[in-house]
Records
---
Amino acid sequence: MKAKAVQRLICACLLAGTALPADAQTALRLGDAGYFESPGVNVLVFSNWYDGLFADSKISGVEIIQQGERTATNGDVRLSATPGQWDPIGRMVKRDVDPKTGTIEVLLEYPDYNFQYRIRAERRGGSVILSVLLDRPLPEALVGKAGFNLEFIPSAYFHKSLMADGKSGSFPLYPSSDMVAGGARNAASGRDIGPGAEPLPFAAGKTLVLAPEDPARRVTITSTAGELGLFDGRDQAQNGWFVVRSAIPAGKTGKVIEWTLTPNSVPGWVRAPVIGHSQLGYAPEQKKLAVIELDPAMTTAPATARLLRVSETGAITSVLSGATKPWGRYLRYTYRTFDFSGVQQPGTYLLEYGGRRTATFRIASDLYDTAWHPSLDVYMPVAMDHMLVNEAYRVWHSDSHRDDARQAPVNHEHIDLYAQGPTTDTKFKPGEHIPGLNIGGWLDAGDFDIRTQTQYAVIRTLVGIWEDYRPTRDQTLVDQKLRHVEIHVPDGKPDMLQQIEHGTLYLTSMYDAVGHAVHGVVEPDVAQYTHLGDAASKTDGLIYDPDLAYGERRDGKSGTPDDRWVFTTKASALNYGSAAALAASSRALRGYNDALADKALGLARRVWAEEHSHAPDTYSHGNTTGGWLPGEEFAAAVELLVTTGDKQYADRVAALWPEIATRFGQYAQTAVQALSRMPAGYSVEVEKAARAWKAAQKPDNPYGVPVTTGGWAGNGAVIQTGITDYVLHKAFPAVTDGSLAYRALDFLHGTHPGSDISFVSGVGTVSKEVAYGSNRADFSFIAGGVVPGVLILKPDFPENSEHWPFFWGENEYVINMGPSYIELVQAGIALGKEKR
C-alpha cells in the first residue's frame, strides 16, 4: 500500500479501536539470524535462554524489539498472571527453526508436573501467529494456574493509552490495580505478614491494542479463542512488567491458545546513528577514536564527521573535518570510526555526524584527576555495612544488620548461590546466633549480602591502589566506634585506608567467630532479599530468641527471625583468598592501625600453615566459595611473599606458576607483584606469558576491548583488560605500551555498542542515571557506581536500558567494580604523565 493510504488506514483503525490488516504492515520474514524481522521490528522466539543464575532475568521466550528498543519478553507458558523472579519457569527441551515455512517451534516442559507443551510461531504478513500446542490435557494441578504470558516493559508504555475491544484505557504510571487476597503468601512477595494476594486485570478483551497513538510502540494482540487479560506485575513487585495473558483451558489438547501478534513497523524507520565517544573526554596525548554505529538500512551514511570546539562565548567552530573509516559489521549494526587524535589543544568539544551532535566533552591534561572521586567519595561509603551512612540532609542507610548472624542450616541450598554442606564446621548449631559478625564489610551489590569472595577482592584492589598510587584524598568521616559515616566531611585520615580498615575488620571477624573463612552472610529468605530502601530496616537489629513470640521484644532480643544467615562450610579457596587480602591489608594498615595490621598478618600466616597441614577442603557451590583453588593459593603466596619476604612463599609461587601460566590473563597482576622477590627465571617466564597475552588481544569488534556475551554484561572484563595492559607495560615496557587502559576508559565512558552513555554514574556529561542500586525503585543512581554495561541479547542485540533499572545483568552495581574503576583511572593518570 502507498504511504498516504497506510496513514489513512491507521487513523481509521485507531478511531475504531481495531487492528491493522496484515497487508498494511511491512511483511515479516524469518531471517538468517533465526528471528522474524521487518524494518524496525524483530520478533525473537526463544533466541535467548536463562543462564541458571536466576530463573527470570527477562531475556527469554517470545520477545519484541520495536524501533530499536526491546519492549517485550518472556512470551511463554507461566503458572501465574504476574510471575516473579523466583517463580517456576518451563525448561526448554529443543528449538527448531524452519526457514522454508517461516516457522519456529519450541518444545518445553515443567518436569515437576510431568507437563510438556509446544510453542509455535509462524509469520503471516506483518504478524506472527503464536500457538500453544498440547499433546495431553493440562495436568489437574495446573488448571487455573497455567497460561500463556507476554510481558511488556512498563517504561515503554508510561503516558500511553490502550484499547481493549475498542474500549479506551491507559497504562498506569504507578501500580494501582485491584488485588484479591487469599491463599499462601508468595515467598518472594516482600511481605512479612498477611495472606497471599493476586492482581486482577486492569483491561481485558479479545483484541488489545497497546499505545495505539504511538506508531513506534503500537502492538496489537488478538486471541482467536478466550480472553486476553492485561495485568500490572508491579502490584506484586517493583520489577514487574505489564503482562498480557490467556489462560490455558482444562481438558483440551491440540491448539489450546492462538494469538495474532502484530508489532507495528514504522514505514521507512531507520535507527539514528550512535556516535560512540567518551562522555568524560580525552587526555591530549591519548588516541581519540569515535566509533559510529549505523543501522544497515542507512545506505547513504555520511562519509565524514566533524570535531567542533565550544568557546567561552558559546560559539561553536569546526576544528577538524575528516573522513570516517568503514570498519564493517558487528552484531546487527555496521560501523565507521573517526580518528581525531591529532587534536590535542585543551578545551570543550563535541562531535557531529549525519546532522547529530554529541554532548560536550573535554580534552584536558587533568581529565582523569577527579574522575575517580565519586567512586571513593560516595559509592564506597554508601556500600559500607554495619554503619549509619549520612550525606548532608540524606541518610543513605542507618546502622544495618546489628543482629548478624545465625548459623545456616545444614544440607541447604539457599538463594543467591549460597549453600551449606552436611555439617556446620563450627561449634554452633543450625539457627544459633554466632556473635561478632556485625562489623565491617561492604554490601555486595544492589542486594544486601556480604559475599566474602568479593570482600577480599576489594581489599586487595584497594591495597594495590594505595601502594602504587598513594591517593591520600580525605573527604569522608568514618567513626568505627560510633558506627557512623559522614559523606563530604574530611576527618584527617586517608579515605583509602579507612576503606581498607573497614573490609579488614570483616575478614578478621570471621576468624574470631568461627576460626575460618565463611562464604558470607545473606538474607534468610527471598522476601527479605528483595528489600528495597534503607538496609537497616530489613531487620529489627535485635538478636533472634526462639523462646519469644513472633514480633515480641525483650531484653534486647527479638522473636522475629529476620537475622541474616552465615554459611560456614570450610573451603580452602576462601581461606587462601582471605589470607591474601589479610596479608596485603597488613602492609597498608602499618602505621595507621598497627594492632589491626598485626592481627591481619598473624591470621594470614596461621591460615597458610593450617591449610598446608591437611588436604584441601574442596567444598564448592556457585560463586560464593572462592575461585579456582590454585589461583587463590597463588594469590596468598604472593601477598605473603611481598609482605614478609619469607622463602617458603617464594618456593610455593614457583611451584604453582606452571598452572597459573595457563590462566595468565586472570592472574597477570598477581604474577607481576612477585617479580622483585623471585629469581630471574621467573621474570623470563612471566614476560613470555605477557607476550602471549598481548598477542591474543584481538577483539572482534571496533572498540578494541573484549565485549562478553554472557547473561551478565562485561564491563568487569573491560576494566581488567585495561588494568592488565598497564600493569604489564610497567613491568615489561617492550611488550605493550599500556594504551588498552585508555581504550577501556573510553569504553566505560561511552565508546561502546548500543548507546554513548557513560557506565559510571555521575562521571561524564551524560552518565548512567537509572541503575540497579538500593535506590532502584526510585529510578535513580548512586554516584561513582559502575554498572555491568552492554548485555548482548542473542543473537545480535546490544542492550543497556536507561529507562528500566531492574535489568540486573546490565544495570546492577557490584562493590568490586568501584575500586577496580578507581585503579583503572589511576592507570590512565599515570599513563598520561608518562607520555607527556
---
Amino acid sequence: MTVLPDEGISPAAPFPEATREQWRQLVAGVLRKSGKEVQDAEAEAALATALDGGVTVRPLYTAQDTAPDPGLPGFPPYVRGSALLGGWDVRARLDFADPAAANAAVLDDLENGATSLWLAVRGPALPPGALARALDGVLLDLAPVVLDAGPDTASAARELIGLYESRGVDPAAVRGCLGADPLGHAARTGGAAALDDAVALATRVHRCYPGVRALAVDALPYHEAGASEVQELGAALATGVAYLRLLTGAGLDVGSALDQLEFRFAATADQFLTTAKLRAARMLWARVARACGAPAAAGQRQHAVTSTVMATRRDPYVNLLRTTLAAFAAGTGGADAVTVLPFDTAIGAPDAFSRRVARNTSAILLEEAHLGRVADPAGGSWYVESLTAELARAGWAFFQELEAAGGQEQALASGLLGERIAATWAARSRRLATRREPVTGVSEFPDLAERPVSREPAPARPAGPGGLPRVRRDDAYEALRARSDAHLAATGARPKVFLAALGPAAVHTARASFAANTLQAGGVEPVHDPVSVDAGTVAAAFAASGAQAACLCSTDALYAEQGPAVVAALRAAGAHRIYLAGRPDALPGLDGYLYLGCDAVAALTLVLDRAGVAA
C-alpha cells in the first residue's frame, strides 16, 4: 500500500464557495467566443430553453429557486406521490381482435410480470361479447382489468360486471376501471359525447363495486394530437371537472365522485418534463378537490403510458431506449400504474418478443433498479421542484382558458382546443424539420441499410373526420423515406448524391459527414469518394458514382478558392443538380444548401423532387 505524503490538504476540507456571479462570468466568456456579447443575467438567460406553454427551463437552479412546499409523500397535495413506497402497477396493453390470441397474451402477461390488464374492446378489436373467452383462466379478484371500449363502453362494462357476478367474485375485492371517457372519445372522433351512459356506470359501480372506477380522464387524445405538457394538463383538468359536475349532479357526493375518476397521461423520453408533469397534475387536482370541498384524503389516481408520438417506425429498436426513459420518468413522477408500449407499436401489432421486453422494462426498474423502494426519488431537486411549479402554473392558466370557453365539451365542439393544439404542433414541426429537436435513427444517424421490421396490421383505432389528428415526430421524415423506398422498389436503386469533398480529410470530413447524415434522413444515398476531389479529378469520380447530383463539402475558404472550377467541372460531367454543405453566401447560385439549422425536410423534399422520385 502506497502512502501519499501529507501535503497539508485535508480530504474533509470544504471546497471554496462558488458564486452565481462567477458562473455567469464563465458563461459569458464561452458565449463571447461564439460572437455573443452578454453579461451577468443576460449570459444566463442566453442559455435558457423556452418550452411550449410559456414555461422556461433555465440552465442553473440553486437553493435560491423556491417552489411551493410539496408536502410529504402520501399526503395532500400529493405532489410527492399518492403512496409512500411500493412501486407501480405494471399494466399490460392488449389490442387483439381474436379472443383466443387475446387470452393467450393475457395469461402470458400475468404469468410474467404484469399486474393488471388494459384491454381494447371496441370496433375491429375484441368485441364485448368475447370478454369471457379473453379472460378465461384469469383470477379477476387478483388481476385488475381496465377497459378501453370507446362507444362500446356500456356493453363492455356490462359483460365485465357479468363475469364478476357469474364467477362469484367478491365485489369488495374487485379493482379496475371501466374506462368510460365520452369526452376523450369525442375528441378522437368528432362525435357526440355519451355522457349519460358514463354517469349511469359510475352510479352503478359506486353502489356495488367500491374498488372499481367507472371513468377515465384520458389525456392521450390531446398528447397524440401534438399537445404540449401544459395543454395536456389543462385538458385533463377541464375533463375531470366536467365529469365531477356530471357525477355530483347525478347525486354522488364529491368524495364519491372523485373516487370514480382515473387519470391517464403520456410519458415521454424527456424524463424531467414527464416527472414534473405527473407531480404538477396531482398538485392541480388536489387544488380542484379542495375547491369542491372534498375530503382531505382525496388524491389523483394516475396511469402513465409511454408516448406513441415519440415512437419511430425507422430504427424501431431505439424505441426500447425511449420507453425505458419514459417508464423511469413515470415511476419517479409517482404514477400509480405504468404501461410500457412495445417498441414495434408504431409498425403494427406487437409480437410476443416485443411484449416481453415491454413487461421486463418495468421489471428491471422495479426489481433490479429498486425504483419503487424510494419515496419521491425526484423530490428535493431544485430543478424538478421549480419545473413542477412552472408546469402547474401554466397548466392551470390553460385550464382556466378552457373553462372560460364553456368547459371541455364546448372547447372541443367549437374547435378552440384543436386550434391551440394544432398551433403547438406546427411550432414543434418546425423544430423537427430544422432538427433543433433531433430524432435518433430518423433525422439523426439514419441507416439506409437497416432491415425493416415487419408486423401484422394492428386493429384500427378510433378516429373520425371531426376528431383530433394523430401525429408522430417522425411523420415528415417517414414520408420522405417512404418515397425513397418506393423508388428503390421500382428502379432497383435509391436516389444518389455524389459528395464532392474538396481538400484533405481534415478539412472536408465534418461537412461531408453532416451532408451524408442529412441526405440519408430523406432516403438519399450519399456517395463519398474517399479520394480528395479537385477540379481535375471531379469528372471521373462523379461519373463513376452513378449519381446525377453532387454536393460540395469543404470549408468556406476552399469554396471560394476552388468552388467555381469544381462546379463547372461537375456541370460538364453531367451533374444536373449541385448542392453545397454550407450557407448560400459561401457559394451563391447553386441548386440547394444544407447547413445547421436549415429546413431539412424542405431541402430533402426538393432533392427528391428534382431527382424525379414520385411523391
---
Amino acid sequence: MADYAKTAAGVLAGVGGEENVQSLVHCATRLRFVLKDEAKADGAAIKAVPGVITTAQAGGQYQVVIGNDVPEVFAEIGKITKLGAGADGSSTEAGPKGNLFNRFISMISAIFTPALWALAGTGLLKAFLAAAVTFGWISTETTTYTVLNALSDAFINFLPMALAITAARYFKANEWTSLAIAGALVYPSITGLVGQPDLTFFGIPFTMVSYVSSVIPIIVIVWLQSHAEKFLYANLPGAIRRFVTPMIVVLVAVPLVFVVVGPISDIVGRGLGGGIGWVFTTVPWLGGAIMGALWQVFVIFGLHWGFVPLFQVEFQTTGQMLLIAPLFAAVLAQAAAVAGVWVRAKNKNLKSLAAPATLSGFLAGITEPAIYGINLPLKRPFAFGIAGGALGGAIIALGNVFSTAFVVPSGLALPALFGNGNMVMLVLGLGVAIVVPFLLTAIVGFKEPAEDAAAPAPAAANDVLILAPVDGTVVPLSEVPDAAFADGSLGRGVAITPRSGAVYAPFDATVVAAFPTGHAFGLRHADGTEVLIHIGIDTVKLGGEHFTTKVTAGQQVKAGDLLVEFDGDAILRAGYDLTTPVVVTNPDLYPAVRDEASGPIAHGEPLFTAVSVDSVAGVR
C-alpha cells in the first residue's frame, strides 16, 4: 500500500521545505508548487521519492507528477504544513511572480483546478444524457429527463458562482462578496434582460449580455474587487467597514460589469469564438492536427491550462466546443502507443508498467503514467503518439465534430461527441489515432531497456556493501550543509568531500537516473538497494557546467566504472560546496546502514553497508 505521508515528506524536502514554497495546488495528477527559489529544488532527489513519477517546470510552477494518488499526497502535505486550503487543490497563498505568461498560466490553473472535476463529472453526465436522447433511450418530455438535465447542466450554467469563490481565494478577495456579485450576474430577472433593447442604469445605456457559463467577467471583476476592498478597508472607519465595504463593492461592481466589463468581454469572447470557428471551418484539418499533435506536449509543460477558458468562451458564444474533439485523438493515441509497448516488450517489468498505463489512458484519459513512465523515456512511442494524434485530430476536425459539454477526453467521455457532427469521420479519426501509433510501436519498435532497468526492487534478503564512489574524506550526513540530507529525509548513508574529479560506480548496478546536469545519479543493485550519489550542494544550478557525464539511464555498470567527471576547482570557484552525499533511497527495503567509514578514503574502498529489512534488528 502506498505510503502517502512518506511521499509527501520526501517531496516537501526536495523542493526546499515549506519555507521555500510560496503556494501549492494540485490538479488531476500533479502537485503544482510556486517556489520562492526554484534553484533550491532538487529534481533528482524528488524523483527518487517513492510515489513520484517525474518533475516538470512550466508556467511559473514547479510540478511534481504523482498520478492518480495526488489528492492523498496533497492532503498529507496539508497535515504537516500550512500549505494549501484543502483536498480540493485550492490554495490561500500569494499568487506567483514572474513573467506575464507564467503568471497567467498559474492564475488559470489556480482558479479552475478546484472546479475541474465537478465540471468534468457533470459534463460526463450531460454527455451520457445526450447519448441516451440520441439513441431514444429517454424522452425529453419526461420529468426524469428534466431532473437529469438539471443535475448535469446546473454547474456549468452557474459556473460564474464557482469561479467567484476560487478567484476570490486567488486574488485575496472576500469570497462571499464575490459570490454576491456572481449571483447578480445569473439572477433570473437579469438573464431575462438579455437581448432587450433600450436598457439603462441611472440613464447610462448598456447592452445586457448573457453571463450564463461565462468565465471572463467574473475573473476580471473579482480582481478589481480585491483592490477595492483593500482601499476601502484601509480608509473606512472600523465600526462600519465590515458591512459598508461589501455594500459599496457590490453596488459598484455589478453595474460596472453590466456597463463595461460584460460588453467588452462579450466582444473578446465572440472574437475568440469566431476565430476558432473560422479556423475549424476554413482549414479544419490544420486546427485538428495542431490540437491532436500538441495537446499532450502542452500537458507536459502545464500549458494546457491556458486553453480551459477558451473551451468555455467557445461554448458560451457558439454553444459547442470544436477545440475539445481533436483532444480525444491526442489522448487515445498516447494510450495506444503504450498499448503497443505492452504488446511488444519482452521486459516483464516494462509490460507490467504498460498494462495499467494503457487502461488509465484509454478509460480515464490520465496519460501521465504512460507518457512519463514509458513513452517519453522510450522516445519513439511518444513520437508515434503525436503522429497518431495529429492524423486523428485532423480527420475528426474535418468531420466538424464537437462537444456540448466540458469533459476530460477519454474513452468514457466519448458520448459527449455522439450525434455532434459527422460520426463516420469521428470513428475514422479515432480509429486512425489508435491504430497508427499502436502498429508503429508494435512493429517498428523501440530500444528496450535491460531487464532490470525498469524493474521494481525485489524483496530484500541480503545486506549490500557500498564502495566509495569518489576519492576524498568521509563526513557524517549530519554535517552536510543541506537540511534534507542532514536530517536523513532523503535516506541514510554518509557524505564525502572529494579530492579528485571523478565519480565511479560503488557496486554492479543499473543506472536508473542520470540527471542531465551530471550532478546526481541513482543506481540500483541486483539485490534491490537503491543509492543516490549527489555531487555537491545546489550544483543543479550550474546546469551541467563543469560536469561530463559518462553513462545514461538504463545502462548497466560494474563496480569502478566511471559515471561522471567534474572540475572541482571550477565548481568551488563558482561558490558551491562539493560535499557529496551517498544515501540509500529505499528504506522500506534497506532501513539502516552500518560499518560507515570515516576519514580519508579512495574510490573502491568500503564506504558502508546497507542493511536489509530482514536483518535490521539490533542495527540503528
---
Amino acid sequence: MSASRTERLLNLLIALLNTKYGLRRSELRAKVYRDTTSSDVAFGRMFERDKGELRQFGFDVETVTDQGWGSDDPATTRYRIGKESNRLPDVSLTPEECTVLILAAQLWEHAALGSAAVDAVRKLQAAGGLVDAELPVGVQPRIRPAGQAFEDLVAAMHAQHPVSFSYLAGSTGKDQERLVEPWGLGSRFGQWYLVGHDRDRGDKRYFRLSRLTSAVTVLDKESFTPPAGFNVRAELAALAELPVQTAVVDVDQGRLLGLRKRALSGPDAAPETGAALEAGAAAEPGEQPAAGRDRLAVPFRDAETLGEELASYGPRAVVVSPPELAAAVRRRLAAAAAFAAAPVPEVAFPEAGRAARPRKRTSEDQLKRMLQLVPFLVHNQGLHISEVAARFGITRKALEDDLRILICSGLPEGYPDDLLDIQWDDDHVFITQDLDLTRPVRFTVDEACALLTGLETLNGLPELAEGGALESVTLKLMAAAGEEGLKAASLSGPEVAPGNSATLETARAAIRSGAQLHLKYFSPQRDTVSERDVDPLRLYSLDNTWYLEAYCHVAGGLRNFRLDRIEDLTPNGRPSAATASPADSFPVKLFTPNDDDTLVVVQLAPRGTGLADDYYAERTAALPGGGLLAEIRFGSTDWLPMFVAQHGGMVRILQPATLAEASRQWLAAALTQYEDLPDRPID
C-alpha cells in the first residue's frame, strides 16, 4: 500500500463519513479517485478492495439503494459510513484503573499482541480516556509468548484460517504433519497450548507449542467457524497435569548444583525428600555411573521440559532412564549439531543497525496511525512535535510525513475549509479542522485480546485484585470492545504469581524502605553459589519467573537476580547506598550490555527469530527462508554452548570462529553419550 493509496483511502473514508445520503460510484470515481483512464471493471475491482480495507479498519461501508424501478442498478447505488460507525465509545478511567490497564498492556513484551496493546492504549489516549499513572513498586509482570509460532497462530485464530505444522507426537516420538483449525491459545502448567480441531483426526486436540518442529503455515485461502462460546481457559482447566516420574541422570562430580538440589537421591540430594524415594531410585536398571560421576534421581513431569534443561548441560550429564527423556535430550543435541554443521551464510548487516522484521502490508500501519493521530491531536492540542512522535513510537520525519498527507486530505473537491487543518510551524502541533475524525475506531480483535487477557492474567496478583480497580476497568473495556471483546476468551495467559511470595515481599519491603539486602545466589551459568550485598531497585517478571533489579556491590553495577535462585534474602541493617537508579526503560532488560562484552554473531532459524529480541540484538539482518543474523553482546561466553544446545537447532554461533568451533566440539562430546540410543523412544 503506497503513500498515494494511503491518501486515497483516507480521502475515501472522509468522503463516506461526511455524506448524509451517500455517494454513487461514479461520483466517487470522479471526485475521490479522479480516475478517467481505467475501465469500469478495473475501477470496480479497486473500489471493492478499498472498501475491504476500510472494513478491516473497523468502518462499516453501508450500501443505500433507491426503492422502485432500477433499485438494483449499480449506477444508482450509493455508499456511506455512519457517523458512529464502529467508533470507540467514551471510556472514562480513574487513576487506579489506568494503573491496572497500563500494567495489563505492558504484559505483552515482544509478541504481536505487544503492538496491539500499544495501539489499544493509544486509542484510549486519543479518546481522552487515559490519564498518566504511576506504576507500583514491584509489580511489573510480563508475558513471554512461545516465539514466532505464537504470533502466527494468533493471527490465524483471529482471521479464522486453518494452519498446518509438523508436530512431535508424545505417543510415538515421531514428527507428524497436522492440519488444525485453531480455536484458542492458552498457558497451563508453564506451557503454551493450542486447542483446536484436528481435521485429519476429526476431533478436538491439544498441541503444546514447544513440540512444534516446524514453522506454522497459515492457509489463508480457507476458513472455519469456531464453536460458539469457546473459552480456552475453561478448556485447559480440565487438562490433567502429567504424573510425576523419576529420571536417572549421571552428572559430573561437583557440578550442576541446581539439578542436585532437586534430586531425590544421590550426593547432595534434597534432604527432605531423598530418604523417602532413595530405594525406588536405586532400583533403576543400568550399570553404575562412570568414574568421576554421581547418579541422581530427579523428579519430573514432562520429558520435553526436563530434556531442554539436560540438553543444555551437554557432556556434563547423561540420561540413564527413562528412554523417552534420553531421546528428547539427544534430539535437541542432534538438531543443534546439524544446524552448527550447515553451510554458513554471508555475514552482512545493514548500516542502520537492526533490520526491520518482515511484515505484511506495512503501509497499513501508517493509515492506522493517522486514524489515531487526528483524535489524539484533538484531545492534546499544542504538544511539541517531538513529544507527539515519541507517543506514537516513530521518528519526527515519519510524523511529518503523516501530517503532510493529512493536510492534503479532505472532502472531495472541497474548499480549503473542507480539508484537515493542522499546523506545526512553531514545533507545537494544533488541529483546527478534524472532519469528524475526532474519535478512534473500536478495538480490533487483537487489541481487545491484548488488554482483556492481560487484565485476566493480573487477577493472579492479590495486591492488584484487591480494591476493585481491576474488576471495574475490565467491565468498562468489555463494554467498549463489544463483540470483539467476547473473542478474548480464545486467549489465556499464564499464572504470574511468584512461586516464593515471601522472598518477593522481603524485596518489596526493602525497596519501599530503602534498605540494603544480603543474598545468597545460585548462578547456573557459573554453577556456583555466591553471597552479595545489593541495593534493591525494582521487581518485575516474565510469566511467573520474578526478577530483582539491584545494584550489586560485588559486581559494581546493575544486575538482575531471579527470585527462585535466591537461596537466602535478608536485610543487612544498612541503608541502600543510592549509587544507582533503575534503568530508564521498561520493560527492564535482563542483560545489561557493557563495552567490554564479547560481540557474538549468531544465526537464528525461522522458529528462533524471537531470540533476537530476548537477548537485545544490536544488529539484525534477514536471511532467505525467514531466518535472521543477529549480533548480540554477551558478558560471559562460557555458557554459549549451553545456550545453543538448549534451543535445539534454533540458534548457532557464527563469529567469533573460536566460539563457533568450541560449541561444535561441545555438542559432539555430548552426543557421543547417546550413540547407542534407539532412533526413537520405546512405545
